[in-house]
Design goal:
The chain is of the alpha/beta class. The protein is 37% helix and 18% strand.
């Protein structure tokens, strides 16, 4: 059936929360929450091919390395693999002393008993109990009224409390989730949570975790923030509870919902790496954490090598991180637009290099190096790219510091090539175009030899004479002329021999390598008849050799476009 048109009667907007004096809009996130990874539960059960014990062990080690202090390791009563995984962690002493593992269990007696069996011998654990509470779940799934749903929660909480003596030496924290909190009337969500609190009897020193999930997104993020603030303001024993949020991404706002939930009073966040999870996934903890980082807040999670984290995640889950995924995707630190490339290039050049200096580069909210990305991939080139991006690639990939006046010329050449191919050009392909266009321009003029001699009888002490042997369309010529330097002498020789009529507009050079055997690269801009300008570039073992070759590079480019009227016939 197609989508409805006109007034939509199939769906109803979620009602707003009566909170006229809401405070969260004026709050700011000032510190990192307690993070709990649910990759080994939500991220595992949502996979087409769930992780086996080997993959789960590798993911657990990754989560520990990142810095998670609370990790939900699974649903031990759901399958033998889940049970065996937890036992491996405990029996092989794989859980660091500063890490608390969390186990999920539905509010059913046989599942709770099996869960406690899986935890024997563990030092610390969070037992995470849940049952569904929304009107649709009450009516459709359970066929119970509100009191019937409360009875399920309190009866199961009492059983968990009664089983604590079966885990001697284990520090157990209790967590309760009204599983469909965001779809539940806020007053009933508070009622069932307080009923659970009354059974558990937490204290400010030994708090209960109340996890208030947005299991399915049904409204804008501000509505969830209202729900969290309303709950926190009306709860009787607020100081004995830690409020946790667990958001999904059905409406594409999981990160925003989590951030507003923290502003509304939550202290703890459950989520996954890269947003893995059922349907559209859970909130991506990496994005939330790095959003804090870019605001100057230490997230207490280490994403210094995001590429390695992504590689392990993709290996274990068989999922792929999209190229546009915030912070982590292949293209997120890449600019194709010419104006963006130019701004990034200028921003990089203007950076204050002193330790602790503020990061301020247009279009890059954080320094890619902070998360193990490199500047090599920041600017990539297609037909929409500009001169700044092309020069950036040449400089950072290959060491060529193109003069700014050369950016326009070479940028246009690259744009034409990219447009013809209809695809992005790799850095190596850009270099190949540069090499073909400038460095390998050896026809119709080719240099066979070049030397200079100081002129003793000249009034100018810096006057030199050059002797050059060139081939012009295969025919050899020996040229001699004086000038105030090697390049000037060579230009005079070419002009006097009527091989070409041109002048030098600009010159630049630099070392291309380091050490005693370093090569030099020269850039020459010439002006021909008709005021046409062309750049040439060449590499040589010394700057004099590179400069002379660069002159011929520029001339050959001009001659190939039939813009010089000189021809070999004029030398016969």
């Amino acid at each position: 059936m197609p989508m409805q048109r006109g007034p939509i009667t199939k769906y109803r907007p979620f009602p707003s929360i009566d909170l006229p004096d809401r405070q969260w809009p004026s709050h700011a996130i000032e510190r990192a929450p307690i993070w709990c990874s649910v990759d080994l539960r939500d991220g595992n059960q949502a996979l087409p091919i769930p992780m086996g014990v080997k993959q789960k062990l590798e993911m657990f080690d990754l989560l520990v390395d990142v810095g998670f202090k609370e990790i939900e390791i699974g649903f031990p009563a759901s399958s033998q693999i889940e049970f065996d995984f937890i036992r491996r962690l405990i029996d092989e002493d794989r859980i660091p002393d500063d890490v608390t593992v969390q186990v999920l269990v539905q509010a059913r007696e046989e599942l709770i008993l099996r869960t406690f069996e899986s935890l024997r011998g563990i030092k610390r654990a969070i037992v995470h109990l849940y049952n569904s509470t929304s009107p649709a779940q009450r009516r459709i799934v359970f066929g119970l009224d509100k009191q019937g749903i409360v009875d399920i929660a309190t009866r199961s909480t009492r059983l968990v409390k009664d089983l604590l003596p079966t885990l001697p030496g284990t520090d157990v924290t209790f967590q309760y989730s009204p599983e469909s909190f965001a779809l539940t009337e806020v007053d009933f969500a508070l009622e069932i949570c307080e009923a659970v609190v009354d059974v558990w009897q937490p204290t400010p020193e030994k708090k209960i975790i109340l996890n208030l999930p947005e299991t399915v997104q049904i409204a804008t993020p501000n509505v969830y923030a209202d729900q969290i603030e309303w709950f926190c303001r009306h709860m009787r024993q607020r100081n004995a509870a830690m409020i946790s949020v667990h958001t999904h991404n059905d409406r594409g706002t999981g990160v925003a919902t989590t951030e507003l939930g923290l502003m509304a009073g939550a202290e703890r966040v459950e989520g996954t790496l890269f947003g893995n999870g059922e349907r559209t996934g859970n909130v991506d903890i990496i994005t939330v954490a790095l959003n804090m980082y870019m605001q100057g807040i230490d997230p207490h999670l280490n994403f210094s090598d995001i590429n390695a984290i992504r590689a392990i995640y993709e290996k274990c889950t068989r999922m792929q991180v999209p190229p546009r995924h915030p912070y982590s995707g292949e293209l997120v630190f890449t600019a194709f637009s010419g104006s963006h490339q130019d701004a990034i290039h200028k921003g990089m050049d203007a950076l204050d290099p002193s330790p602790g200096a503020v990061w301020e580069v247009p279009y890059l909210p954080i320094d890619p190096k902070d998360i193990g990305r490199t500047y090599e991939a920041i600017i990539r080139i297609n037909s929409q790219s500009g001169k700044g991006g092309v020069s950036y690639v040449m400089e950072n990939e290959f060491g060529f510091h193109l003069p700014k006046t050369m950016w326009v010329e070479f940028g246009k050449i690259i744009n034409v090539v990219a447009d013809e191919r209809g695809e992005e050009l790799s850095p190596y392909e850009i270099y190949q175009v540069f090499e073909r266009e400038y460095l390998k321009q050896e026809t119709p003029l080719a240099l066979e030899s070049f030397r200079t001699e100081m002129v003793q009888d000249a009034p100018e002490t810096d006057s030199v004479e050059c002797v050059a042997r060139i081939a012009f369309n295969g025919r050899k010529h020996e040229l001699r002329a004086r000038g105030n330097g090697p390049i000037d002498a060579f230009v005079q020789a070419l002009n006097q021999a009527k091989i070409a009529e041109f002048s030098i507009l600009s010159y630049a050079e630099h070392s291309l390598d380091k050490g005693s055997g370093a090569r030099a690269v020269a850039y020459i801009q010439i002006q021909t008849e008709g005021d046409k300008t062309f750049f040439g570039s060449a590499i040589g073992t010394n700057i004099e050799h590179a400069s002379v070759k660069a002159v011929l590079s520029a001339l050959n480019r001009a001659l190939s476009r039939s813009l010089l009227l000189a021809s070999e016939a004029s030398h016969d």
